[in-house]
Automatic annotation (TrEMBL):
It comes from Luteimonas kalidii. This is 3-dehydroquinate synthase. The gene is aroB. The keyword Iron does not apply. PANTHER family: 3-DEHYDROQUINATE SYNTHASE (PTHR43622), 3-DEHYDROQUINATE SYNTHASE, CHLOROPLASTIC (PTHR43622:SF7). It is an enzyme of class 4 (lyase).
Length: 362
């Protein structure tokens, strides 16, 4: 069995991301930061597969402690105020005190909702992220953004609440549906697109291995992605500057998810479409060559991801959602554009006519 890798996230609230097979059975690692009771939040897709292993490992490690759990329905629709209310009620019923830890066992939906519940309960208790999707391992479990969706927009309610630890058990990726694996690869491609063109070369060379679920290729992609995310969130934890680069493709992608009522494209798919649209916007503005858009599009297509918006979406409605994007300012829309592969930047004051033109092309 390969040795776990670790990535350190520095800053005021440092923690370690540990990546490797079998971590969900490692009671010592799971309980490493545990001070009081444990409360595992999962979803009804993940819980039947992995919940018992986590609760057993924690109970074995800390025999005197309570290990309770609560499960939400799988899917983006659960990242709602209503489900958040249910999570808080479950935490209250379990009588969690300030020294308790919430364990978020699942994909980004569980991570965002459980993380926000941990941030809100008694004004903040510890949270340990146990990501089980590729997307959660490379992105959502790291950096402390927690959130809920509203009908008016994605992630509009939330808090920055860094985890105490992130444990990514790569063995669980074997049960991940292929659509979810592909969605995770979209966020992996994002790191290459924004800051690391050499990583894009590597992804092009290892695309088949990644799609086949090759353990070594996946571990390398996860570790490199986490190292990029760690470096960015360490220097800008609250998104006052550079952290916004992680939003490449998200202004377009979030608008699609919102307009589809969180029941159409899944997040990684919407980000794939959004990154191509962001590249096309950059091209329209004369910032980057068409060859870079084509390269990005080809790689995403190779990963089986959509690269055009679903038909029938209303441009006015999409623009309306973009005006409520968290990067928007009184001066107008701000987009993450690129000057070419690996060179993204924040661009304020983007004219809506340019965005409309991109949307009109699909
Ligand atoms: N906080 C952040 O920084 C951040 C970053 C990126 C994305 N996100 C959020 O993450 C969410 C998307 O997360 P996601 O893509 O992980 O989707 P998800 O959480 O909806 O999980 C996808 C599906 O896979 C199932 N599943 C999870 N792990 C499995 C496994 N190992 N085996 C079998 N089935 C498994 C789940 O039950 C679910 O049905 C979005 O809400 C997005 O906004 C947040
Ligand atoms: O961590 C970040 O910062 C990101 O932007 C990562 C994104 O992949 C993620 O989808 C995030 O939830 C988007 O945040 P938001 O602030 O645009 O809601
Ligand atoms: Zn994202």
């Amino acid at each position: 069995m390969s040795q776990p890798r670790s990535v350190a996230v520095g800053g005021d609230h440092p923690y370690t991301i540990t990546i490797g097979p079998g971590l969900l059975d490692d009671g010592a690692l799971l309980a490493g930061t545990l001070r009081g009771d444990a409360f595992v939040i999962s979803d009804d897709g993940v819980a039947p597969l992995y919940l018992q292993r986590v609760t057993d490992a924690l109970s074995r490690e800390r025999p005197g402690r309570r290990v309770a759990h609560w499960t939400l329905p799988a899917g983006e629709a659960s990242k709602s105020l209503a489900t958040f209310g249910e999570a808080i009620a479950a935490i209250a019923d379990a009588g969690l005190r300030r020294d308790a830890t919430v364990y978020a066992l699942g994909g980004g939906v569980v991570g965002d909702l459980a993380g926000f519940a941990a941030a809100a309960w008694m004004r903040g208790i510890d949270c340990v992220q146990l990501p089980t999707t590729l997307l959660a391992m490379v992105d959502s479990s790291v950096g402390g953004k927690t959130a809920l969706d509203l009908p008016q927009g994605k992630n509009l309610v939330g808090a920055f609440h860094p985890p105490r630890a992130v444990l990514a058990d790569t063995a669980v990726l074997r049960s991940l549906p292929v659509r979810e694996l592909r969605a995770g690869l979209a966020e992996v491609v994002k790191y290459g697109a924004i800051v690391d063109a050499a990583f894009l070369d590597w992804l092009e060379a290892h695309a088949d291995a990644l799609l086949a679920g090759d353990d070594a290729a996946l571990a390398e992609a996860i570790a490199r992605s986490c190292a990029h995310k760690a470096a960015i969130v360490e220097r800008d934890p609250f998104e006052h500057g550079d952290r916004a680069l992680l939003n490449f493709g998200h202004t377009f992608g979030h608008a699609i998810e919102t307009e589809q009522g969180y029941g159409g494209l899944i997040h990684g798919e919407a980000v794939a479409v959004g990154m191509v649209q962001a590249a096309r916007l950059s091209e329209r503005l004369g910032l980057a060559p068409a060859s870079d858009t084509a390269r990005l599009r080809t790689l995403l297509e190779r990963f089986g991801l959509p690269v055009c918006a679903p038909p029938g979406l209303d441009s006015d409605a999409l623009l309306g959602h973009m005006r409520l994007d968290k990067k928007a300012q009184s001066g107008g829309l701000r987009f993450i554009v690129w000057d070419g592969a690996g060179r993204a930047r924040v661009l304020p004051g983007v004219a809506e006519s340019e965005v409309r033109a991109v949307l009109a092309e699909g």
